[in-house]
Design brief:
homodimer, about 220 residues, alpha/beta, Helicase, Ruva Protein, domain 3, Dna Topoisomerase Vi A Subunit, Chain: A, domain 2, 2 domains, four-stranded parallel beta sheet, two-stranded antiparallel sheet, globular
Chain lengths: ~220, ~220
């Protein structure tokens, strides 16, 4: 079928996540009414993004430089690494401003259903990173206690989703990291801040009960 | 502030109608995971659309040629013209397949609040079109009845939204068209097909009652 440029544009827009035919038509008209101020700049921003944005070779985060801005930031605590599934999770944690360490983006979750195995994820890279991080540094004779102390400071935080795939991935990563002298932690499960008990699922309430803390 | 290409792309996407920051981030990641297959083709489709898609000089519809495909289609009834506010309304009527005439896109609605006057809309063009359409054709002496017959076949259908602005625009256009020998009609108002009376506003029910037809 001979598809015109307008139908072609609408069909491509309708394939984006969260958009359907109606919203794609609306966006196409919005763009066509603003060709110089929006449509062409957006096209250029996409071209530029496609060629300039790359995955950080160290952590997998997206940035225009590699290593990324977070890995380059010397003000961050390199002894704390937060393991997340997606780049959007890096953004979510960064928005809180509560974490000043570095990240490791797995690039997905293990999934038997979707056929995603460990080799599809950035797990080997994580192990190599841990290897380098935990490598015994040359210490003067008798300085064993000092070396031990440095290593015990390393912490890996598993910030993976509380889904079946997320938790099985966390379990697998945890297993692979056991051999390194690291502290491994995971995000707390419980009642979301602002959440009403009545609207929560049973699993969350049970977890929150079991993980209760002294008031 | 020095904005990176990723933040720039997300900010531009977030400005599109129906999208916010979260959906823009999601779309940006989706695009970056499919650079060759989606991101660059979409950028090219936008560039191409911005340069190739134009408004039809006759009716104002968007197409890659002018006059547009609908105005060029000789299978369509040129004696019936459907007046709509937006190009998306042309698409909405076309999807039904129930109208085989031509269109005239006003490009908006009269609005005192938004300061849209008749000169902002494609109303002059409509009048010129009517002028050409209703111009008395040269008829042989005594052929008056024949000419009259041709002219009475012309029909203008006002398919403008049932809002305050839509109805005042319809009123204005109707007034301006009175001097031409045209039949002027408008879409019926009433209960939408599949609509429950209980969920309809009072105005619609009153209109449907007043316009009731023999069962």
């Amino acid at each position: 079928m001979n598809e015109g440029p307008l139908d072609h544009l609408i069909r491509m827009l309708a394939g984006l996540p969260g958009l359907g035919n109606r919203s794609a038509r609306r966006i196409a008209l919005h763009l066509l009414e603003r060709r110089e101020t929006l449509m062409q700049p957006l096209a250029r921003a996409m071209e530029r993004g496609a060629s300039e944005i790359c995955a950080c070779e160290a952590c997998g985060n997206l940035d225009s430089i590699s290593p990324c801005g977070i890995c380059r930031d010397h003000g961050r605590d390199s002894a704390k690494i937060c393991i997340v599934a997606q780049v959007s999770d890096v953004w979510a944690v960064e928005r809180t401003g509560a974490f000043r360490g570095r990240y490791h983006v797995l690039g997905g979750l293990l999934s038997a259903l979707d056929g995603v195995g460990p080799e599809e994820l950035r797990i080997d890279l994580l192990l190599r990173r841990m290897e380098a991080l935990c490598a015994p540094v040359a210490v003067p004779a008798g300085g064993f206690a000092e070396e031990e102390k440095v290593q015990q400071n390393f912490e890996v935080i598993l910030a993976l989703p509380a889904t079946v795939d997320g938790q099985s991935t966390a379990h697998y990563v945890c297993d692979r990291l056991r051999k390194y002298p690291l502290k491994i932690s995971r995000l707390a499960h419980g009642v979301p801040v602002g959440g009403e008990l009545d609207y929560l699922d049973d699993g969350t309430i049970v977890t929150a009960l079991n993980s209760r803390s002294a008031a």
